[in-house]
Specification:
Layout lengths: L2 E5 L2 E3 L14 E3 L3 E5 L2 E3 L2 E2 L5 E3 L3 E10 L2 E2 L10 E3 L3 E10 L2 E2 L9 E3 L2 E5 L2 E3 L2 E4 L3 E3 L6 E4 L2 E3 L2 E4 L3 E3 L5 E9 L2 E5 L3 E3 L5 E8 L1
Parallel strand pairs: 1-4, 2-5, 3-7, 4-8, 5-8, 6-9, 7-10, 8-11, 10-13, 11-14, 11-15, 12-16, 13-17, 14-18, 15-19, 16-20, 17-21, 18-22, 19-22, 20-23, 21-24, 22-25
Length: about 200
């Protein structure tokens, strides 16, 4: 499989316009290995995964910002910043800021994850979706591992900080969940999952 690397780039104001079949306004990845470092993905638009959509392969992002991207779906879909439905993803020192998935049934304003996901030393702030303003997780495929992550000032109808769907597994240590606001349920977390969840050394305010 091919290996690709992008360093020191700005990817801004790109649009995928094909309706419900579109994804990845900024980047779409379905196979191979992709590494991003010192990259800004800003103000991109797609039905789902306005900043990035990943359906397979390996995605590694470090020292980067994913900001002000917005999904165009009026109903289903999600992942204003990132939509991760396959493969493996690792985020290190990534800022996921002010992304929107405003549809009536959308999930994951900052990030929608249904793959194998590792996040460290990163921040999700100011994002919005119906479910999971900061993050929405819905996969038992090795689950999500979060360490030293801040989830701040996100908004949603339910699960403003993080929403865990039915199949989601998650471990989360040494983090801050502060200032998130839900209209109905779960300002910090909304747990609808039946799979294991481990939380340790967190500040939830």
């Amino acid at each position: 499989m091919p290996s690709r690397r992008i360093d020191g780039a700005l990817i801004r104001r790109n649009i995928s316009t094909g309706g419900s079949s579109t994804g990845g306004g900024g980047i779409y990845q379905e196979a191979g290995s992709l590494s991003l470092s010192d990259v800004r993905l800003e103000e991109n638009e797609a039905f789902s995964g306005a900043g990035i959509m990943q359906t397979g392969g390996t995605l590694t992002i470090s020292d980067s910002t994913i900001a002000r991207n917005q999904t165009s779906s009026p109903s289903i879909g999600g992942g204003g910043g990132l939509h991760l439905s396959g493969g493996e993803t690792q985020l290190t020192r990534v800022q996921v800021l002010d992304n929107q998935a405003p549809g009536s049934m959308t999930s994951g304003g900052g990030l929608y994850g249904a793959n194998s996901l590792t996040v460290s030393q990163s921040t999700f702030s100011g994002n919005h979706a119906r479910s999971g303003g900061g993050l929405a997780l819905d996969s038992s495929q090795n689950g999500a591992q979060l360490s030293h992550v801040q989830i701040l000032d996100n908004t949603a109808v339910e699960g403003a900080g993080a929403f865990l769907g039915f199949q989601a597994t998650m471990s989360f240590d040494h983090g801050r969940i502060v200032g998130n606001s839900a209209i109905l349920y779960g300002g910090g977390f909304y747990f609808s999952n039946t799979e294991p969840t481990e939380l340790s050394y967190l500040s939830v305010l």
